[in-house]
Amino acid sequence: MSTVTTIKEKMDLLAAKADQLAPVRQAALKAFNNFGLPAPKHEEWKYTRIGNVFNLPLQWAPDQVDAVTAEDLKPFLLPGHEEANVLVFVNGVYASALSVIRSASIECMSLEAAMDSGYAELVAANLGHSGKYLTDGINALSTASLRGGVFLTVKRSKDAEHPLFVYNITDARQVNMLSQPRVLLHLAENAGLQMMETYGTIGSQESFTNQVMEVVVEKDARFEYYKIQNDAAHASQVSTTHIRQTGKSFVHAVTISLNGAIVRNNLNLVMEAEYCDSHMYGLYCMQGKSHIDNHTIVDNVMPHCESNEFYKGIMGDASTGVFNGKIFVRQDAQKTNAFQSNKNVLISDDASVNTKPQLEIFADDVKCSHGCTIGRLDEDGIFYLRSRGIPDQVAKSLLLHSFAMDILEQIKPEPLRNYVDRLVSERLAYEME
Amino acid sequence: MLSIKNLQAGIEGKDILKGINLDIKPGEVHAIMGPNGSGKSTLASVLAGRQDYEVTGGSVEFNGKDLLEFSPEQRAGEGLFLAFQYPVEIPGLSTVNFMKTAVNEVRKYRGEEPLDAVAFLKLMKEKMALVNISKELLTRSLNEGFSGGEKKRNEVFQMAMLEPKLAILDETDSGLDIDAIRIAAHGVNAIRTKDNAVLVITHYQRLLDYIVPDFVHVLYNGRIVKSGTKELALELEETGYDQIKSDYQFA
């Protein structure tokens, strides 16, 4: 049976399930049947042939999560793990035995339970909100498949004492696995949260992770978010982070992509209140035949907001990259400051990048700038370093590391910064051999 | 130490150096002066090993070895240093980290043990005092946002750190005010010994007030057309290069 037939069958079964999430799933199933999987002619998927992933026989993830043990998790742990709040998803299903919430200020429950709680209204308004911005079958697939997802809330006027670590683990030891982790995260008024997230595929079969995380950031809340993508070279993912700033708030997001087969990130920032302050940074450093695609949307709805977006790429071997940065400035969003930049260095003749800034401005009193570059390492810089006794290869990796530096510096927690810095340095040394 | 014989070089098929002869011995300071376009910077680049230039004839011996056979990094390992006319800005790389790598790579080339963090810091402090440079400058991104004077002082600091046998200063004075020239020159003089040599490349005489040459050579149209002592530099300052140009235009 083809993968598409399988997933349709499973989604039909889920839609028929009479639980609290049924209406959300049913609406998404309708959307999926309408959109289908993105074809190459789909403007947002032009350079990322995600449909090919479904040519594989992908296994629908089982409900049971006990096949993955704490021991299996070890290779993927981020620094500071022991002290952190930990959420583990196994094949997209929340694994409570591997997870722990240490902070009293964080409440965690299943999406189904959240629909029965005092948060029901909030969940109903936000679960699937990303579908308003991502009109394609991939996003609909996630929402139509809602199962094993988690709702988290950080309480009013609290900074979570510990950061939140999210591990998206896929068990591909026996079969090619389809994994669809789902999180709805809420930061109440004046709450603060630092979150780190990573992905890991166990086993040598292929995996496809279709992740959606929706975040609601209320007035005066602070959300700091680090996504580290260093999965296996045979693992693909579409990772969507959809952030609504419903009140004047602060968001700082850093996306580091180092490995994977196809890696597509959708990062959306919807600024629905005045005086929002948002920063999005990205570093991708790819090798082999990896494909990295960063699609970002900044939607300025209200006046006086500031957004700053800075992505850098280092592309080796036959890797391919895409950057697409949309900025909307709605008619009411006067005095918007929106900055966007994407810089790429190609270190191989076979590597390529397609980069596209896209600004749609309907207000007349705004400051928006964008720029993108694709180039090679500067020969003058290489000669300068070599003239001081630094061998050619070392000079090149030093220069690439310096190029990555201003993004690495945006990783505020020092242990995580050092960890990522080491991964990047190792990668660059390898690239240059 | 350095022996250049009938050196010819060019770029993209255009001949620039048309037969340079020059001998530099340990402890000496040589100055090469000349009008714009005479080949001064080309000579510096060829000696340092910039690959854009093609050597079409002649030889360069450095401490008995064929310099032209070496890569730029090997030349540095052998003890050659070029202070750049336009030091390159490298955002994200501090001078400290740059020098840590450079010093240890040069040590590796020479078969010496790398310096540990403590030893490196000690060396750095010593050289900082010698060339009068602040720690703050050295922890910033290399040359990024530096003033002209800061860039040149940083070049001299790097020179002090690498302790070259032959230092080539390529128009180190260009774009500097008097104070900045004095500070840079002071640094160069502080690291001079009887065993190392300096080759100053300059358009104007003023730098030579501070770094006093034993020999002055005039480069014109790819050849050294006149050599003398430091008085030659003063003479040139007086007459300008027009006399040289009319004397040697058919050279």
UniProtKB/TrEMBL annotation, chain A:
Checking SUPFAM superfamilies in the record gives: Stabilizer of iron transporter SufD (SSF101960)
| Residue span(s) of domain SUF system FeS cluster assembly SufBD N-terminal | 15-164
Pinpoint the SUF system FeS cluster assembly SufBD core domain residues. Answer: 176-403
Alphabetical list of InterPro entries matching this protein: Fe-S_cluster_assembly_SufBD, SUF_FeS_clus_asmbl_SufBD_core, SUF_FeS_clus_asmbl_SufBD_sf, SUF_FeS_clus_asmbl_SufD, SufBD_N
Family per record: Belongs to the iron-sulfur cluster assembly SufBD family.
User: Which NCBIfam families does this chain map to?
Assistant: sufD (TIGR01981)
Q: What is this protein called?
A: Fe-S cluster assembly protein SufD
TrEMBL record, chain B:
What SUPFAM superfamilies is this protein classified in?
A: P-loop containing nucleoside triphosphate hydrolases (SSF52540)
Q: Which InterPro entries match?
A: AAA+_ATPase, ABC_transporter-like_ATP-bd, FeS-cluster_ATPase_SufC, P-loop_NTPase
> What keywords would UniProt list here?
ATP-binding, Nucleotide-binding
Q: Which residues form the ABC transporter domain?
A: 2-246
Q: Which Pfam families match?
A: ABC_tran (PF00005)
Q: Which family does it belong to?
A: Belongs to the ABC transporter superfamily. Ycf16 family.
Show the PANTHER family listed in the entry: ABC TRANSPORTER I FAMILY MEMBER 6, CHLOROPLASTIC
Give the protein name, as stated in the record.
Answer: Fe-S cluster assembly ATPase SufC
